[in-house]
Amino acid sequence: MVGVSAIQQVSKARNGLGAFILPCKRVTISYCNFGGSSAGVRDFLRLRLGKFAQQYPSVEFHILEKPGKHPVLFGNYSNDLTKQICVRKWNIDVVENKLKLLLNASGKKLSKPKHTVVSQNKSVRGIWSPFYVQPEHRFKI
Amino acid sequence: MLASNRSSIHIAKRFISISPAISKINTINNNLNNNSVNHKFKFSYENAKNKQINQNNLSLPENKLDFLNYNNNSSSSSISLLSNDEAKLIPSIVALHARLNLPKNYPFNTLVKSLTCPTNEFSNLSSNNQQLSILGSHILSFYISEYLMTNYPRLPISILKSAIDSYIGDFSLYDLAKNNWGIEEDLTSKLDKYLSNEPEIFKFGKLRYIRKVTNPEINVTKYSNDQNSNTFELSKAEAYANSVRSIIAGLYIHSNNNDLIIKNFINNHILSRQIDIESLFQFKESGKLLSKILKSNNLQPPVVKLISETGRLSSTPVYVVGCFSGENLLSTAEGCSLREARIKSFNKALKAWYLYKPLDTKLPSDEGFNGMFVDQGEKFY
């Protein structure tokens, strides 16, 4: 159309507004079958993993044997980032809590929020203008 | 009435093909060569690459207008990619099925097929997502354009196209597939897979395509031993987008004619994404356009009046102007010069016109849809 041209745009994701998809897509549990530091993880794999994994059908659980290494939990997220937690010497309960921590994370790097509200939308109110003030109350030079 | 008409319609044999794009030279040659009825046909939905099907592979219905019963045996007779039970063994496929909250009757091997872009290995129509993605793109464009046309009935066609593209263009669907759904592409080589003890079948859980190399490195010549491979090359965004389209087409096929499933899926995953339609507009000579619109609606021509100003002699003056049509204030705008404020006010007035949004809209695919207000458009064009 004459006079009106279009600028290309890419839609932005708003996860949770329609469907919510867990950002964590894969969890990898590495352990040693012999080492004492993996005792808690081995307990977890033996006693709890089956039920635990059923609660999170949308997440892949990979079990990786790394002989002679301390046990580590890895979380892979849909933003291509990976988080890892070393669980050496930790007991079964701590391992489960650390796994929950990974599963519930957004995958973003931890940072201190600078603003109290973070929004994709433009401010409804708009920027402040001196003309909001009544003419008789305006500052006069 | 209609059925009786149908039976009486006589269709010449030459015109059986659904697509008008059947090449005439070929059929003539065939007739000359073997004098037989071995015509070649092209289904319009098959693909855009002029792939033709021999009549031997095509089972035609008795009633030529019975479009549902045209069958292409050349693809259905071949073996499909993976069986559903095999596909169930791939963790990433099972996880993707759960992530998308797909219905239980959605087979896992459809997901595998959706993630398989055409390659030399999977060039068979039934083993790759080529046809699924075409169906999916049509479904998507139907639901998205329906939503935009009813919610913004006055959008100019260029903006409407751009808005549809920003919902279901390659880059948006790429972002959806990669950063939301978590689909991964298969980047590892066969050797890597062998060394990592990964089962052969696991590669089907990832997106596989032939990467288009647009800018090869300097002093590097692109080598390919197969000239055919060029036809399958896809960019990263295209490959991801096609997988999304195919998954949606699969949902449509397995939804048992329940449109609500596909509609909710598109609402939840694609229409829930954010686009800013207001910022799609770019006006040229907005004042002329505005006065044309006002004239065609029997309103008075636009007049811009200064409402307030500050610092006219300073380096940063601010002017607030209003665009009036007779008594009616169309828009207000502020600017650093009178000219800027004036043009901004025109743009705002135009946007207020074009972005008109009726309340409580019902989509044509909704139940109880009673027609809608359709704008007369720009009569002056």
TrEMBL record, chain A:
It is found in: Mitochondrion. Residues 33-106 form the Ribosomal protein/NADH dehydrogenase domain. The keyword Ribosomal protein applies. Pfam families: L51_S25_CI-B8. Keywords: Mitochondrion, Ribonucleoprotein, Ribosomal protein. One of its GO terms (biological process) is mitochondrial translation. GO terms for molecular function: structural constituent of ribosome. It comes from the Eukaryota. Its main location: mitochondrion. One of its GO terms (cellular component) is mitochondrial large ribosomal subunit. Signal peptide: none annotated. InterPro entries: Ribosomal_mL43, Ribosomal_mL43/mS25/NADH_DH, Thioredoxin-like_sf. Belongs to the mitochondrion-specific ribosomal protein mL43 family. This is Large ribosomal subunit protein mL43. The lineage of its organism: Eukaryota, Fungi, Dikarya, Ascomycota, Saccharomycotina.
Automatic annotation (TrEMBL), chain B:
One of its GO terms (cellular component) is mitochondrion. SMART domains: RIBOc (SM00535). The keyword Ribosomal protein applies. It comes from the Eukaryota. Residues 93-178 form the RNase III domain. Its main location: mitochondrion. It is found in: Mitochondrion. Pfam families: DSRM_MRPL44, Ribonuclease_3. One of its GO terms (molecular function) is ribonuclease III activity. GO terms for biological process: RNA processing. The keyword Mitochondrion applies. Keywords: Mitochondrion, Ribonucleoprotein, Ribosomal protein, RNA-binding. PROSITE patterns: RNASE_3_2. Belongs to the ribonuclease III family. Mitochondrion-specific ribosomal protein mL44 subfamily. This is Large ribosomal subunit protein mL44. It comes from Pichia kluyveri.
